[in-house]
Amino acid sequence: MMQSDAFIARFMALHPKKIDLSLERIERLLAQLGHPERRVPPVVHVAGTNGKGSTVAFMRAALEAAGYGVHAYTSPHLVHFHERIRLGGHLVGEEALVDAFETCERVNDGAPITFFEITTAAAFKLFADHPADVLLLEVGLGGRMDTTNVIDRPLVTVIASISQDHADFLGTDLAGIAREKAGILKRGVPGVLYPQVDEVRAEIERVAARVGAPLVIGGQDFDVHEENGRLVYQDEDGLLDLPLPRLAGRHQHRNAGLAIAALRSQHRLVLEDRHFERAMQAVEWPARLQRLNQGAIPALLPPGSEIWLDGGHNVDGGRVLAEALAELEERTARPLVLVTGMLSTKDSDGFLQNFAGLAREVHAVPIEHSPAARTPEEVAAAARHAGLAARPHASLEAALRAIADEAFPVAPRVVITGSLYLAGEVLGFNGTAPK
Questions:
Q1: Fewer CB under 10 Å: which end of the chain, C or N?
Q2: Where does the Mur ligase C-terminal domain start and stop, copy by copy (predicted)?
């Protein structure tokens, strides 16, 4: 066990709730630490329901192509906590992480604080102590009361796709959810907006008008589409003719467009067309329609199987995944088999309904290290309710072996999905943890 794991275990016990939306505790600790959040590099702050991490990945690839030193903060991690914090393009090392954790634990002195709050304080300390040109800062949950919303003057704020998720904290009213996400908007700071449904866009526009934040709106001020196998981006500054991004799925075209618009809306960091072109070819973001070609899992499945991993876990995430799989089916027809594990806090029925008529069968699996996981029997029942054939299994390996024993007319397309926590277990099992 890494030394940082011991700190993480202790941090989990500092507050009775895993999530308790408030800025009071983080502001107290940051003040005690000497306000590291005021000494971080210029910030691009990113909120949204789906696509935040992918948008950050596109921006990071473009900025690094331009030679900038880039810090990044994302969550959750898949295999190791270190994935959440990138310092100048590299995952934080164990020694630096332990040092930051140790300082935060000592300064906090046992005061009530959530896990995300104290670890975000540690991240701000690391970002302040290590020079870079920019910090890409992803919201944890919501926006207005999120722990990351202590940055007074970011370079730009970005709001990715908004839909329902975390209903127990943000509710189910789309306008209310949009209002919380729009809480990261700041006076005089450009707010760049993914193309949203009318209800969401109208609410964000109301918040922006109230705080005095100029908006750059997808589908209005910028647009992106595929044309002749290329990605075409256009805004008032001109047109970019780019390669299609490495990240699979048409929704990633829109995330790429959002990233480009965000970087073109600020004027401190200078990027050229060639940097965006390089970004489309270099971008990586694990467990978002990630192809698994090597490792333990391909060795267990029938030769020639096409294996994908996607951390989609809410209704809208299921929708965009199903759209991407339908496109793959149009290009190359294969039997589609889902391996699915989900949390009890997610709408399993709504997620799985997206795959009715598309998937041949669902193999339901547990998420081993999450007490909030649905049982395989519950996931299988939800799949059947959605009109899908389904079987529960005691483990991921048992599901994979069951698929290997089936008779398929051609090698199947196997998609493992339903939870980022499951995705982390899959990458660990496969031996392909993010680097």
A1: N
A2: 307-419
Cβ partners under 8 Å of residue 62, min gap 6? 259, 260, 263, 271, 275, 276, 278, 279
Kindly list the distances between the CA atom of residue 53 and the CA atoms of 47, 139, 144, 247, 308, in Å, as whole numbers in the listed order.
Answer: 9, 10, 19, 12, 18
209 and 234 co-located in one domain: yes
248 and 117 inside one domain? yes
Q: Which two tokens stand for residue 228?
A: 């002749």
Instruction: Write down the mean pLDDT value for the chain.
Output: 95
pLDDT tens column, 228-257: 999 999 999 999 999 999 999 999 999 999
- Give CA–CA dist 186/355, Å, rounded: 39
Q: What pTM was computed for the model?
A: 0.94
Report how far residue 434's alpha carbon sits from residue 415's, in angstroms, rounded to the nearest whole number.
19
Find the helix or strand (DSSP H, E) in which 361 lies.
strand 361-364
We report the CATH number of the domain holding residue 422 as 3.90.190.20
pLDDT tens digits, residue range 151-178?
999 999 999 999 865 555 566 788 999 9
Contact 297, 403 (CB under 8 A): no
DSSP 3-state of 338: strand
Rounded Cα distance between 239 and 223, Å, is: 10
Contact 66, 266 (CB under 8 A): no
Q: Phi/psi of residue 133, each to 5°?
A: -90, -25
